[in-house]
Design goal:
SH3 type barrels, 284 residues, 5-stranded antiparallel β-sheet, 10 strands
């Protein structure tokens, strides 16, 4: 027991050795250990609280998933900020002694960490203004996919290939962003179709509308439409316009299905789809 007590006393003395002083407060190994443990606990508990608020508490309200995620993240950031102030006070560190350190950190952030700070501030702007939200279908630069997570520094977008793409938040603030479901998930598709000159226009319009109405992913309201858009070099250019909410994340699939149906229908009804012709004259 005496040996154990001696080991504990020696350990206590080592932990109480001052490493540096901040104002009138000495910083010891015990202080650093407290900060590390309490800081890790703060991050862990704030993450758990965010999950509980998002997935349990706010589920009872009429808030959509994106709004719940934003609210949970804002609450977590607020708790982390307040918690760190409390932890520093608990560890015996005088916050007034951090003024010089805060100035130095601010200068360092301004030069070395400006991209990280830019992304973090952009993340806060996204959470408040909500130009995008979890579940949206977005295109930013050459990235297209569904937003699955909005974090403090970056946003995770999952493509149709099930690849997670980590996009810095500043991209959504400084670049043009296409949000296919910002207002609602109703999107119009434009499908160009060409037929040979001399084809009955009324028949073409009727057949195109039949193809659109037969597709289960095409909405009945708004109604599909057909427009004659141009007199092309080799044929008449039509455009079939349809609305959908179910395949905005797989636009190629809907376009392919409708094009295949158009080709079959035109073949069955003798409608010619023209191709570019070139006349070659050989002079003797």
């Amino acid at each position: 027991m005496d040996i154990l007590r001696e080991i504990l006393d020696n350990s206590h003395n080592v932990l109480q050795l001052p490493i540096l002083k901040m104002g009138s407060s000495p910083v010891t190994l015990w202080t650093i250990l407290q900060l590390a443990v309490l800081g890790a606990l703060l991050f862990y508990l704030s993450g758990k609280l965010r999950t509980w608020v998002t997935e349990h508490f706010l589920v009872r309200t009429k808030m959509e998933l994106g709004a719940r995620q934003a609210t949970g993240s804002i609450i977590r950031y607020a708790i982390i900020g307040i918690g760190f102030a409390v932890i520093l006070q608990t560890a015996g560190i005088d916050l007034t002694a951090l003024n010089v350190l805060a100035g130095a950190v601010g200068l360092g952030l301004g030069f070395g960490l400006q991209n990280i700070v830019n992304n973090f501030i952009s993340g806060v702007i996204i959470l408040f203004e909500r130009p995008i939200k979890v579940g949206d279908r977005v295109v930013v630069g050459d990235v297209e996919g569904d937003v699955v997570y909005i974090g403090g520094r970056s946003t995770t977008v999952v493509s149709n290939d099930n690849i997670s793409i980590i996009v810095p938040n500043s991209k959504f603030i400084t670049e043009n962003v296409i949000n296919w479901s910002h207002n609602d998930r109703k999107v119009r598709f434009r499908i160009p179709v060409s037929v040979a000159y001399g084809t009955d226009l009324a028949v073409v319009e009727r057949l195109l509308l039949e193809v659109a109405n037969a597709n289960p992913d095409v909405l009945e309201d708004p109604l599909p439409g057909v427009r004659l858009m141009e007199f092309g070099d080799s044929g008449l250019g039509f455009e079939l316009r349809v609305w959908s909410t179910s395949l905005i994340h797989r636009r190629g699939l809907l376009t392919s299905a409708i094009n295949s149906a158009i080709y079959r229908t035109f073949t069955e009804n003798g409608i010619e789809i023209p191709y570019t012709r070139r006349d070659v004259k050989i002079l003797k």
